[in-house]
Specification:
The chain is an all-alpha fold. The protein contains three helices and no strands. The protein has one domain.
C-alpha cells in the first residue's frame, strides 16, 4: 500500500511542480498553483464519489485508473466483500 501512496503524492508533486514552472514563466504563479491544486481536488472528489458508489453497492461507473491510490482501495473493498460473502454461506 505504501507504493500507492507514494505514487499518489508524486503525481501531486508533479502537478504542483509543473504549475510552479508555468507560473514562473508566465508571471502568474499564484493562478497556476491555485489551478493545479483545484484540478487535484476535483480529481480526488471524483474518485471519492466513485469509491462511495463501490462501498454502497451502487452501479459502478468507469473503473478507477490503473495507477495511484484508488485502485488499491477498491481492490481492498472487493476483498473484504468477498470474505464477507463467503462467511455468510
Amino acid at each position: 500500500m505504501r507504493n500507492h501512496w507514494a505514487s499518489h503524492l508524486l503525481t501531486l508533486a508533479g502537478w504542483l511542480l509543473g504549475a510552479l514552472l508555468l507560473g514562473l514563466v508566465t508571471g502568474q504563479l499564484p493562478w497556476w498553483l491555485v489551478g493545479a491544486f483545484a484540478a487535484y481536488v476535483a480529481y480526488t472528489l471524483r474518485n471519492l464519489y466513485l469509491l462511495d458508489r463501490v462501498i454502497t453497492g451502487g452501479p459502478r461507473l468507469r473503473m478507477f485508473g490503473t495507477r495511484g491510490l484508488w485502485p488499491g482501495l477498491v481492490a481492498g473493498i472487493d476483498k473484504i466483500r468477498a470474505k464477507s460473502r463467503s462467511r455468510k454461506l
